[in-house]
């Protein structure tokens, strides 16, 4: 819960400004009595008239008022949001400098421009030269622009794009004195930001990538949609509107067709979304549309020149804007080659095309021959996966596609670290090329570091428990529960049966399936998949299943073990997957099964056993030194929500009985803004069969 006192301590300048503005609005009655209708407006309003009369104090005094009462709402909200953000990022002192500099520069430079351009036949500047303004909006918008220097990419670019788009669009469509001041203060803030943090501003040139062209083309149509949405609010005093003839201006300002406007917004946003995904059909539609529109605009411009029709500035602006959009589409045409989703599923080699048994067999063979650093890698051979392979190196990345996200599973499989790093890069490039978002789930620290070298982000999402078999013994107080399980199993005549499930007698197979079905029904939600196997995965001949069987052939517990192929392909151990216990059966079934299996594996010459990772759970003591974002709180909350159903955190505590070493597993991804999509994709990967009722029931447990 946010406490006002804590906010005031963290944001003292913003809090003080809000208090002063509210107090003065009440004291002067401008909160309900418009300042513009009172003589006080002449004393407090800043602008060219005030400066020409020598009232320079209005630069400061006018910043604490609003021209009209309703304007206090955007001033208070804007100061709290934009100003609070800037102070949080810059600190009180640098924030105060940015506020003062941007307010003074925005207002004074605007007055200077109007002083130079008034009375030269341009109605817009002549009108603004007689206007007065009030309020701190130029200050907090400029300060927010300056504070973007402290934000990491890609958020920095997005924040700056939104700020610039806002001030430019409002200047074009509204054209008030405040809008001109906003544009100038934001420009100054962007230039001032680097100096505030102790470095010089730099402009770097680089080759535009496929992703850049998609973002530019998509952004063009988003801006076009915003312009349509702003059209009903366009005033007659804007910089382009004043250049039109009276008839043309009346036509532009007439009540727009709401249905046609909504249709335009929907069309532009559809084109923006499709171009962002690199769709070839959307590119063709966009190019054809802009060619037609630009042709009409050029012809109209020629007619206006020939007939002397006013409004060349407005017509030229629209034609130039559409020309830039068309140029981006033509220059970046290679970035828009993706077929529609339906066609992509039928295209061989597409990332969304279904995989076949041959691809799975190839992946399994590569894992056995090449190996990898991830001990959970056998799950990359499960049939629900798809497999990305490179023409230049031996190896693969297993992945699944959900919600427009290609979710890679475990580390890339390859013998050399260089090849694993290269596979990650090639996989990400291929995913981006097909308009999807890449990420890798449950990867080791090695892949995490490779991803960070690419500028990606990482979050710990699980913790793997690993037992080194050569040093394993059950001596000491810490192993008391394990020794108890082994001793009681011996007294009850329960023994370990460890072999592939497919080779076991049918009676034992039926018991295993019954125990698993009862376990799933008891949870009240569908069985989870993705990194959590079930009976189907346990039927793999390469997987060994451990059963706790008594003298009457009753199965009391089930575990399954996947092979571990280390770098180079050598089989060095086993990874725990399925854990099921017969309700009412032997209490220590799991302890007995894991301990007995570890002893058997050690006797066979294996060096390591992985108790797998508990999703959304980790030990409090682990500190990996890698970046940990605020979304950790979301993952912790999700883990708490799922705990009553799947017991991930209880499972982590249970595995601690075997004194394992803990190794973090990560989610790596290129863009923090995509975390909601990634979260949705992971939800669908884990619960592909969950319906709306299941998800509602799951959500209720979180409250």
Structural topology:
Elements lengths: L3 H7 L1 H16 L12 H5 L3 H5 L5 H4 L10 H19 L1 H26 L5 H6 L8 H11 L7 H19 L3 H20 L13 H21 L15 H8 L4 H19 L3 H28 L4 H20 L9 H6 L10 H14 L15 E4 L6 E7 L2 E9 L3 H17 L3 E7 L1 H9 L3 E12 L11 H13 L2 E5 L6 H18 L11 H4 L5 E6 L5 E11 L5 E11 L7 H15 L4 E8 L16 H15 L1 H8 L5 E9 L5 H12 L5 H9 L3
Parallel strand pairs: 3-4, 9-10
Antiparallel strand pairs: 1-2, 2-3, 4-11, 5-10, 5-11, 6-7, 7-8, 8-9
Report on this structure.
The structure is a single chain. The chain is an alpha+beta fold and about 700 residues long. Among the domains are: about 10-200, Rhomboid-like fold; about 210-340, no CATH class. The chain is built from 28 helices and eleven strands. Strands 1-2-3-4-11-5-10-9-8-7-6 form an eleven-stranded mixed β-sheet, with helices on both faces.
What characteristics describe this protein?
single chain; 703 residues; alpha+beta; Rhomboid-like fold; elongated
Cα end-to-end separation: 15 Å
CATH class of the domain at 11-201: Mainly Alpha
Q: Structural class of the secondary structure composition?
A: alpha+beta
Distinct helical segment count? 28
Describe the strand arrangement of the main beta sheet, using strand numbers.
Answer: 1-2-3-4-11-5-10-9-8-7-6
Low-confidence stretches: 620-631, 643-647
Apparent shape: elongated
Q: Please estimate the helix content.
A: 40-55%
Please report the total strand number as a whole number: 11
CATH topology descriptor of the domain at 11-201: Rhomboid-like fold
Strand content: 5-15%
Question: Kindly state the mean pLDDT as a whole number?
Answer: 86
Supply Rg.
33 Å
Q: What is the CATH architecture annotation of the domain at 11-201?
A: Up-down Bundle
Q: Give a quick account of the main beta sheet: strands, pairing sense, barrel closure.
A: 11 strands, mixed
